[in-house]
Every structure is written in C-alpha cells, then in structure tokens.
Amino acid sequence: MYIHIISTVRNSVKQIISIGNTTICLQSIRDNSNISVSPMCLSMKYFGLFKKKKKTPKVKADAADGGGKTIVIPQPAGTDEYDINHSKAGVAIIFNHKHIKGQATRNGTEQDRDRLESALKLYGFDVSVYNDLTFDEVTNTLEKAAQQDYSNVNCLCITLLSHGLPGQVFASDTYYPVEFLWDRFLGDKCPTLVGKPKLFFIQACRGTNLDAGVNIMFRSMPTETAQLTYTIPSKADLLIMYSTYEGDYSWRNSTNGSWFIQSLCLELEAAAQEDDVELIYLLTSVARRVAYDYQSNVPNDQSMNEMKQMPTYMSTLTKVFYLKKKPDEDEEED
Description:
The chain is of the alpha/beta class. Helices cover 19% and strands 20% of the residues.
C-alpha cells in the first residue's frame, strides 16, 4: 500500500512557479492546450480487494501509551462493509476556485464543478457548492460542517478545485496545508463520522514536474465475534485522492475541464446505471482512464507536449464501501 506523507512546510510561491521572467502558475499555460483523448477504455473486471485476516495475537511493544477514545456505534467490528442504509446517502462540499489572487484564472473549472455536482446527486448526496472563498471563509465553512450531526449519513465527501503547490492548496487569497481540509473531521474531533467513510478529492497541481510517460508494447501471455463497542484509530476511514502524483502537474483544459474530475464524473455517471459500485474499484477505473486515455497536445511547446498524468490516493478505509445509486422517483421499496 502506498502511503503519502504530506509536508506542511511553506514553500516560496515565486520559486516554485517561476519560469524565466514569468511568475505564474504553469497551469495557466495548459489552459489553452488541446487535449487528445482516446476512445473510452474497457471496463475492468471486478477483483477482490478485501479479505478477512486471521486475528493476530496482541504483542507488547516499546511505544507510548495511547489515550484513544472508545466510540459506541451500531455496526459490529467484524462486518466487512460500511453501512450504507442511513436515511441520507451523503453530504458533499465542493470548493471551486476560479479566481485566485496572484494566480492565473482557472478557466474550465465550472465544467468540473457543475458535472461533479450532478454526478454526486445521482447517488443522493446533499451537495453544497462554494465559489472563490477566502481562507477565512473556507475555515468557517469547514468548522460549521464539522459541527454537524452525521448520525444518519452514509459518508462525507469534500472536493477542492484549485491551484496547488507541494503540500499546499489555494483559497482565493492565500495557500494553506492540504491536510487542513480533513483534520477537523477525524474521529477524535467529529464523533458522528466515526466508522464512516470520509472522502476527499483534490484537483490541483502538486509541483512542477512533468510526466512524459513510458512507451509499452502489449504481448499476449500463455468470522470473529461481533462487538458493539470497540476502539479504532482517529485517522481511520479516510480516503484522499489527488488528481496527480506528488510533485507533478495536474492538467486542465480551459473548455472541457480537468482530466481527473471529468474522469471521476464519467465513472460515477456510468456506475449509476448499474448496481451499487465498490469505491476502490471505481477509483481504480478513474486512475486507469486518466493514465491511459489522456495526453497533452501542445505542439508549439515541446516541453509540455505529449505529457501524462497519474492520479493517486491514500486510504485508511477499514471496510468495503459501496456507492448506492439514488432510487428512481417512480420506484417504490417493498
């Protein structure tokens, strides 16, 4: 499993995003780029990702004594799947930043915002959209969200559409550590989200590196006792997906939107036509689509031409999570 450790050290914006005598976020150079997209990739067969493991014996270790909290929730510890039968499918927040002080305008972000809002509503999410908030406004919005009662909600989903730096993302007036988005929703700070998936999608650059890709050639080849009260880490049940690999650019088209968010929406829309879809399977399909179907087309700038992008995610999910599509209005439950 890949674990990403986020740096909170503030870097010089000018140093990171300067090229020659131009001090702008290089994402602006990509705004006018044409994108070549290959035909839709084939659906991947479902593969088993989660299997029960035998209970391991307790081992004494030379470590600090943890003062963890014990939360009582109605789902037994031995269950393999997250409960998706609450009265509300989920709460979603979208922070959309088009105009950022000192940065290039993020043309095309409206396409990401609107399509993602519609895609999440297919699954019954209550979606709130915020445009061009300052850092203080982002802080207030997150604080209010963390104070809500999520007892009857399946999950929380927060998406950021913005510029970014290594370990940092932008509000409309300044940048801040990316982990600021989820810190207040951890189990020790937001009790009603304990044992529930907390999803975060980050569409932003993570550095200035370009991925030229690698040419490849295809060659054919010949139960445990359930408990109602138990202790889990405060950082459990998180999933954080980034549009690009650490240190790399994140591509966005000024007309069609970003590769990552558009791929995420396409997979969400397609899955909504089928039965309930498992989250990790869906996100693997998103990563595959971005990796295989997209390549930059900037023939007038060979340093930016024919580049690739690789989304990544960090997960502390402890169960399988199925996205349950919203029932049609004409459907009735027995």
